[in-house]
Amino acid sequence: MFKALKEKLSNLIMKTNRLVLLRHGESEFNLRNLFCGWHDAPLSASGLEEARTIAAANLIAAKLVFDKVYCSTLSRSKRSAEVILSEMKCSFLPTVSDWRLNERHYGNLTGANKRDMANRYGEEQVQFWRRNYDGLPPPIETSNKYFYHICNNPAFQAVPIDQFPLTESMRMCVDRVSPVWSEIRKEVLEGIRVLIVVHGTVTRALVKHIEGLSEEQIEKVNIPNSVPIVYEFNMKTGELIGGSKYLGDAKYIEKMTEKVAGIGN
């Protein structure tokens, strides 16, 4: 009772708004331990189930409601958002699909098995490509089986030719996400309740912007699929109140975070 009264008084003094950020459900490429990037891999059966029973279920349990949704132009992001909104009985919400929220482009690593690459180039090199802030995979070549699937994807028609990547580092992804984050942040501070459903590296890029993490700190951040991350902002000052709050079972979150951090089998 005292805690509820304290929260009520706090809200009267300081008007706040929440933002929820989450990574899409497991994709077919996640399942097969392949570098995905801008390839439009669909959700796996487990990924669809994660969107329902982990993402949506935890959002419902937390009694969170939204006014607007952001996702990328890739189907695994859009489909996760659709499933979550359906489970929450709010499929009518406006949804913005923005190419700037597409996953980081993994260049010529696209379609390659992470373990095979580690066996070929060494685990240190693969982790450099995956986690180092300036780790830049080799640009995708026309010989890559996914090159033309990516370049000819109609979902990317809005991407300016001079901004269409052939590879990206974490730094480049953070810079790409920066303008759209500024737009979303402005809406959040105006009171719009926003849900963002995107990708692993893009989620990390947004976490860096939101929490003001250093380049070294963000290299160590790993994001599990379908686990909502809640942030609260002071709408007057724009300041972040406290830190991130992950919704869900702590042991499950720890287990899946460790899985994401590793190269896999």
TrEMBL record:
One of its GO terms (molecular function) is phosphoglycerate mutase activity. SUPFAM superfamilies: Phosphoglycerate mutase-like. It catalyses: (2R)-3-phospho-glyceroyl phosphate = (2R)-2,3-bisphosphoglycerate + H(+); (2R)-2-phosphoglycerate = (2R)-3-phosphoglycerate. The active site is at H24, E103. SMART domains: PGAM (SM00855). The record marks H199 as: Transition state stabilizer. Keywords: Glycolysis, Isomerase. Coiled coil: none annotated. It is an enzyme of class 5 (isomerase). Substrate binds at residues 23-30, 76, 103-106, 114, 130-131. Its EC number is 5.4.2.11, 5.4.2.4. The keyword Nuclease does not apply. PANTHER family: PHOSPHOGLYCERATE MUTASE (PTHR11931). Belongs to the phosphoglycerate mutase family. BPG-dependent PGAM subfamily. This is Phosphoglycerate mutase. It comes from Drosophila grimshawi. The lineage of its organism: Eukaryota, Metazoa, Ecdysozoa, Arthropoda, Hexapoda.
